[in-house]
């Protein structure tokens, strides 16, 4: 067991502290029987608590901390304003310093006559109710909505007429207000009135010092009476939303004084003069001096309209402690915080939208697809397609799209990996049988099972697979294919609860990558039986040297590609040797199938285009999604001194010069002698072609994607913590891109927007939910892991990854807050929230503008649908569910339903059966032997020769005419076959010792045992001193017509003459035949 790091120890201690109320005994009672599952549950609870705390801190910052940076409106105590020493005066609750303006105008002259007094009577706001004769509407929009909006203009006219005729302070004559009450003497007229539009405009030009502030107790004790007989001047105030309203004039003109008894009077409501609703008028009348805010919002219909009306007509100041009033209008800290996110979204959207223009794409993504047409060398490309439960129709579409690409058929290979035997809900046969039917595979005999060490745990460590190979015909294309079918062990075959052979996508990728890595040095690397079968099928049956594959396109089985995809991706990689991998542009294949698929259109666009284009514009992609990516497997012309050293994987070259004729690939041009002389799938090679095949490593080739460091980093980690479970079990493809960047920090990723593929979207909501939760959990932990790598990659990588990490964490809180800001704006009309709402509405409008500019009108409708329903679903519901389910990463939810599970979740393929006894989990993991290629071929040849001999003896026993073979003796049996089949010349390299004593200990164990193999290599080269002598011996054998050819499939003792071979247009025996000495 490996030693935990210091960071891990601190994290585990912190999780125990956060979950101390839940001891292990209690968790065992609820079903968490293993320590790993209990630790994962504690880590999940800790992550959830941290996420809630971060969200809460973010909300507290926006709601409370930002108010500390607000500049609240300056207020003045009413006692200070109205003191005898004050030179201020007030007008409708606002304080003015008229003295500084002198007597420049009539207004300032009159105002300076009455310092430290309330000048509100000289500026009557009720004159807003005055309309010219014949005019049916009011000039002020607030009054218009309040009065005419509820058909109360007649009552308003009656109220105004009554007030002007019965208030002794106002002199109204000839439809004009002649004079107003003198400040300080309410019932005495004589002061000028300022109420015209010109006066209002002039009044608004003078700056206000601030609002006048009243104490609540003062309002409650002194502002509850109205003027009546015996009290010529009264004050009737109410408080609404911390604002003081003077309703004295309204209630006085809307009521009549009636005598109820001798010396006792009361007031009766005059309905014909009541321009406010009766319930509101009664509320004002019976709650004088109190705060009516709750009653107002709970009982008054249309509260927003009447609130604005009351503030326009009766505003008189504020109450003490109203410090948040300024933040509702100007909140700089809030604007800066939200503005940072707005700026990020704006930059990201602009860069994404600009990259969709063709001239911008030519500048940013410099790809010249014509370079491959003009070049004499087209790189070999492996098209890797893992599949599990996809429907046969979907896989057939993927197969046809890949086979019909305009890339040369003899330079591409379809490599399918069936990740376990399962049956789709829409099919009647197993998944691999459906694919074989689509490929046109006609043989009814199953290939031999081949073992390999998988990534499985315990009893699932050893896995078995079958290898199918042939040529797939689709349209006019005839493409070679290899399909690996993981069938599992015999115990898995009878386990009906789990799919036999299933090990996950990471294991499938490692099958191909590790096989290609070992092929680079077949002379020294030990290979597994599955690797040997892959090599045999690839080279001997299909006629393709697996070491020639320079690029590997990894695409999901539900993604269909356009015809020029492979061409474009290879062109970009060929043009830039520093590019590790390149991602294409994935679009939805079934966007309008139902509402579930429509909601996924813009998330797909954000994931597979927007995020990639944005990071590509900044100089480099951080991670790749993995569903549609082409990787670079090796580079030509490396600088040997800069090769990274990895333990014993880098073998020092033996002290001899590599023969020029034995090179696998050409040095600088990237071409290879083997590639030029390899067997074409369409025609046989010409007899004058000579091929020299060497198992020695080519020193002019530098591994990139198949470098031992990369494969070790991809295969070695174990899912033993919550963090690694989410990475290795859910984010397998993204983790491979992270390992690539970590192993090659001087390289980068790329994005090709013109390489377009189409993904089949989930049509069921629960399939979508499982898919999104899986992606979100993987994304969060991949971003956490990438922070340890980004600091070694440069400033731009660190900045991009950090902003992406912040986006991942805070996208949900900021979107929730935006919804709250919109609601607050529509309810309260606060300026601070109005600016935020308008800013993000402008962002949405800008996005719609770009879509319209590209004439994608249908996308406008989908974008509106996404904003209304998709945003809360993808950015609120799914993230919360993903955090809560983060300890269920070992449970896999299939997007494509199976006949066995349907839409239910299942255990991940590498997880061992939890019901097994812990003592039985570690089985014989050393049973799969790894040997060199020549040892495998010798063993296979001996088996086949023995089998042929037994068959011949059985036939001979039934034949009475002969007693044995003519001229046959035991020494003629081929016991030491050639290391590999070559066309004209055969080099024999023996392997001394027993390789079977060195079993395959791990998926990426050291392929070379220096203590053993150095001795073997020394003896090997001591026996064959020169290449010429070996070739001469081979030519002597060829002259005697003794030819050897190796295969694992069909073998025969049928003799072949050289003359017959040359007549048929070939210079070596056909595949799958072995010849004996013929005379």
UniProtKB/TrEMBL annotation:
Residues 666-678 have a biased composition (Low complexity). GO terms for biological process: chitin biosynthetic process. The chain crosses the membrane at residues 45-64, 332-351, 371-389, 795-820, 832-853, 859-884. GO terms for cellular component: cell periphery; cell septum; membrane. The keyword Glycosyltransferase applies. Coiled coil: none annotated. The keyword Transferase applies. Keywords: Glycosyltransferase, Membrane, Transferase, Transmembrane, Transmembrane helix. It is a multi-pass membrane protein. Its main location: membrane. InterPro entries: Chitin_synth (IPR004835), Nucleotide-diphossugar_trans (IPR029044). Residues 655-686, 986-1014 are annotated as: Disordered. Its EC number is 2.4.1.16. It is found in: Membrane. One of its GO terms (molecular function) is chitin synthase activity. This is chitin synthase.
